[in-house]
What we know:
By secondary structure, the protein is mainly β. It has a single domain (2-29, 36-387), classed as Neuraminidase (6 Propeller), CATH 2.120.10.30. The protein has one helix at residues 117-120; strands spanning 2-6, 39-41, 49-55, 61-66, 71-76, 81-85, 90-93, 108-113, 123-131, 134-145, 148-157, 172-174, 179-184, 202-207, 228-231, 236-242, 247-252, 259-264, 301-303, 313-314, 327-331, 336-342, 348-354, 362-367, 373-377, 382-387. The strands form six sheets. A six-stranded mixed β-sheet has the order 2-1-3-26-25-24, with no helix packed on it. Strands 4-5-6-7 form a four-stranded antiparallel β-sheet, with no helix packed on it. The longest helix has 4 residues, at 117-120.
Amino acid sequence: MFAITCYSRSNCQPKCRLVYCTLLLCALFAGTTKAQQSAQIIDQTNPNIRVEQLFTGLGVPWGMTFISPQHLLITERNGQARLADLENHSVKILQGLPDLVAEGQGGLLDVKTGPNYANDGWIYFTYSKPLNDEAATTLARARLDGLQIIDWQDLLVTDSATSGRQHFGSRIAFDGKGHVFFGVGDRGERDEAQNPANHIGTIMRLNLDGSLPADNPFVREAGSRDEIWSLGHRNPQGMAYDQQQQRLWSIEHGPRGGDEINLVLKGRNYGWPVISHGKEYWGPLAIGEGSSKPGMEQPYKVYIPSIAPGSLMLYHGDAFPEWQGSLFAGALKLRHLNRISLSADGKVTAEERLLEDLQERIRAVIQGPDGWIYFSTDSGRILRIGPER
Length: 389
């Protein structure tokens, strides 16, 4: 069986919507909240797991990262960041974030502690930065001092600014060799995803301090942006680096049908919008020139119909030995947690759809220090999956 245990429920909701403005900070979730109710759901297909609700009443929790085994840093698309204490069940607002655009699909996006966090304290963020009447996906880093974000540094304000409010990306991954990856979608300008002169529709690679790696694939190509690692991406919504196998995975939104899991390789072109496995939103018409073309990469998995992925995580914990090496993706449209089994050579061997009974748009998925799986929902909940006791 799996059970859902509710630990906390807030008594106020964030009211503000931020558009080209500084954050309106309020005392939501200040202090400790207590458990108010519990419920239990039986799922005969998953007899060995349980799901615990930790927090509710947030905005859209877009990203999560552990800064200690007890403390979880949460970003919300509306422009707030919170620090959650898993022991006393309190959630407190952080101060010190920059101005951002929280409209449409933009806002405060991903967050991850850096690979050297224990020594240098750097935490990495992506967000939608205002540039006059436009917005651009931006990679930044900062440190945390109590409830204050300090030392904010924009590492790369991408050349992706448009007046649109869609397809910002953007997840973060580290390769353990001194590099950070992040992506940006096509920003509603689909043809620009094939133009290496800007960052639209690309996955980028930088050194941890934001400087340029000399071995990036387009460094010596005139007319190309040096930060680009790969191009032709529609809207990468999840990214996971497998340090054991030394490979980068990405999951991205297709159009109507055609969500993709891609093995992201140096300098490769992933085809959008020249090739796609999806259809136009306005009619049953293929996009581009078909589903394949020489010189353009094929996805390792295609979802038809679309699940609308919200994240990607590679599981390597001890709590679920049978899931080690699996990819997990949150599904927004077909509301569930998607598990993808991989062979040793990276081929997709099976797919499993978990937590469908929750009927929640699952946004962020991460592995905790305890090997449990933590995830957020667009309804403002933070939950975790652990082994049934």
